[in-house]
Please model this.
Amino acid sequence: MTLLKILTYPDPFLREPTKPVADIDDEIQTIIEDMAETMYEAPGVGLAAIQAGIDKSIIVYDPDADVEKKDFHVLINPEIVFSEGEMVSENEGCLSVPDLRADVKRSEKVTVEALDRNGNPLKIEAVGLLSVILQHEIDHLKGILFIDRISALKRQLYKKKRRKALKSEPTV
Ligand code: NI
Model:
């Protein structure tokens, strides 16, 4: 297994829309295993392929972030087919958006259709944390980051802070 490099804002690749997976072959299975390993190592509760530089419609997640069990879920070509209600996801964060936590307005309930890693169709009805994870990761597949869903002022402050942080990083 290989740990993948997680791209961080403002890497333009994070804005690319992803392509649907047509054929769930061995290459895809390897990507899935590497993504899961990378998510647990980070650690995070979810990871979209685009964050690892792969423009395919794949997400992995584990709301328990249980590194011992590594009982993670995989969704291929996921789509939100129904959403309802509103909630505030408190202190949301993202592995690709370092040093920021913010409250994000999200749908309360979502229904997601996808394929599992064996190509079987799945339908998930989610509320609470799972609903937030699915919305956050499916956003990634469309090039959307959670900072797009916070106030313009907070976003500007973050951009400034990030620019400063990157400037002070040594160049190699
Ligand atoms: Ni994220």
Residues 106 and 166 are 30 Å apart (CA to CA). Strands lie at 46-48, 58-61, 73-84, 87-94, 97-106, 109-115, 121-127. The chain has one domain: 12-168.
